[in-house]
Amino acid sequence: MDKITGLHHITAISGNAKKNFDFYTRVLGLRFVKKTVNFDDPLTYHFYYGDEQGTPGTILTFFPWEDIMAGRRGTHMVTEIGYAIPEGSIDFWIKRFEKENILYNKPASKFGEVYLTFLDPDGLKVELTVPEYPDSRDPWVTEEVGEENATRGFHHATLTLEDIQATADILVSVFDYKLVKNHVNRYRFASPAGDTANFIDLVEAKGEARGHVAGGSVHHIAFRMKDDAMQQHYRQLLEDRGLHPTPQLDRKYFRSVYFREPGGVLFELATDEPGFTVDEPLDQLGKHLMLPPQYEPRRSEIEQKLIKLD
Prior knowledge:
By secondary structure, the protein is an alpha+beta fold. The chain is 16% helix and 33% strand. It is built from five helices and 16 strands. An eight-stranded mixed β-sheet has the order 2-3-4-1-13-16-15-14. Strands 6-7-8-5-9-12-11-10 form an eight-stranded mixed β-sheet, covered by helices on one side. The termini are far apart. The model has no long low-confidence stretch (mean pLDDT 97).
């Protein structure tokens, strides 16, 4: 069977939709790949950001709930999202964050890689990492963020856990990841089948308070499935371990299976197909409100209730 190459997408929760849109498209320079609504709450947006095509491994999505309470980082959750950036671009991002009054920490090093940590407008913790080996993915570029500085897609995601053992066992025994590096209480796992967006860091924080997933928090992370057959294979492996994966759910741009891993984090298996051009041409991605078919009869009502982005 095909092996998991890495992350497909990461989904987080934000507050004000307009602030979220402005930050990720203008400040961070990502492409707005899709403007749609939450499948379970059609009066709430679902935003997708990524590279030109919304390639798996670059897709960051948000549920913006206007009055959501702030989350709290702690155990049993994803606590960091890592993007890959080119060598020599750290100074550009520092100056940009200072200009935009973005809270950031001075550059540091982790596993021999320099990284810059910042918080988005809702307090979501993001890291820009200069990888050990240059990331060759083509970036989305804007007038303000050129190719020499633009993000390349995900580098890693970090899970903070009370005990990493059971989660590590899923990564290694089911997902075929390998433990590649360890420093103190941080353990880095990598998928040998991929060379980008293929790191998962597990941080063991015994005694730390449990986190709360709300505004400024990651809701779930998704791993790449080439197709339905590959997804069914991994779903069966999870079923055999008693992890109770959901049936396949159609998310229009990919098909999903969810389960909660032993450390408490919601994982998803997401297919690469059909992709974001299933309902919009490539040059029009993100320009129109695209609704799931069941909500199309309510378009007028939904458009009136959603906040305007411009």
